[in-house]
Amino acid sequence: MPALPDAARREPLVTLTGVSKSFGAVQALRPVDFKVAVGECVGLVGHNGAGKSTLMNVVAGVLQASGGTLSLGGHRTLGGPAYDIRAAHEAGVRCVFQELSLCPNLTVAEQARIAHPSLHGFGWRRKAAAMMGQALDAIFPGHGIAMDDTVGRLTIGRRQMVEIARAFTESTGPAQLVILDEPTSSLDAEVAEQLVAHIRRFVELGRGVILISHKINEILAASDRVVVMRDGGIVAERLRQGTTREDLVGAMGHVAERARAVRISSATADQVVAMASGGPGSLGLTAARGEIVGLAGLAGHGQTEALLRIQQAAARRDRAVTLRATVALVAGDRTADGIFPLWSIERNMSARWLPHMTRHGLIDRAIERSEAARWRERLALRTPDLRDPILSLSGGNQQKALFARALGSPAQLILMDDPMRGVDIGTKQDVYAMIADEAGHGRSFLWYTTEVDELFHCDRVYVFNAGRIVAEIAAADLSEDAVVRASFQEHA
Question: What's the whole-number mean pLDDT along residues 294-311?
Fold first, then answer.
């Protein structure tokens, strides 16, 4: 596709001037000026709670701005109660939310009906299936998703693919501006690259994309310009060309991580705390005291199932699994498997600790509050009051609460199911250091991650392919190429 001429690229697609947002006494957005040009992808980065999602919710019509103006196409100024989700959709604004908004009881095809009310009457399901299938094929070739699949039965990675595809579908009018809020948080590297390629094709058609991601390399690959937010305001703006990862991390207010070093584990065979035998053609899995063991491979190839098998073995006998440690799990799909949405932040954190905080058969609230406050400090959890609802937190801060739940428990084996979804780069560095420190004190970790860079924090890595462990790679031999080759190797 031909690139747009420079003059066309400078035309404004969306312009925000002095936009602010307050929730009572809390100012989530300071007056912000922000724009996206026709044919431009703008990357938006910042720590959890920086205001990125709040700003995008204003653009998408989900939230009403407290002040300022929003213009679309350089001529249509919208604001106040007249600008809502419906008005944004009619103007061509589409949004992929960090917390997926699909209906789990509906099929893949039926999800299109939610976004496109024009799909009705005889044969609408056939039209919806064609619409969703076309979008999935264009963005994720070889996706393997059937249009009659019930969404609730799909893996979280495939659900994310469906949500992304729905945002790019078109019925009565084309998508002009697509907002992608952490769109690849559950996607493996190959599928994420497919999305980046589609973003570039999409903007070459004269459309716009706002990409929010904590994966800096992804931001630099997809964006024409990068905007950095901190504490509810914009603090920096960079053209992609000539911008480095270290530049963006520094602008966010966090020191870039130093060159990583291969961990040296002193674990021995007689210190094994978990052992799971493999099926036909599969290696077995072991984790020793103080080890950090990575689980890698393409998403949906059995890594989560392996973790759940070990977790379930802690509750009931499984001859194929040997456990010599108590277990805690950090869920990756926090909405479905992690948080208790009606509970406070404090109680969500302490749920795994409560059996160890009783006095005369009753929960000792003083100890619970003290421990919750300690973990808030240790994880820099951004909240004015731990008694606030868990849903008052940003997605990344909700994930911190789940880390606190697991690490604050006495469990000696921590299972982590791609736990860094939606967590900012600064917090990631802090969590990596914390994991290494805990391992140094004898705690063991089984860590499934879709981010190859995170595997370099592990002592050993098991690579999964089609539900089986096909390779074990020592830290000294670990490389992205080694993981990719094992992920795609032929199996009997």
Answer: 88
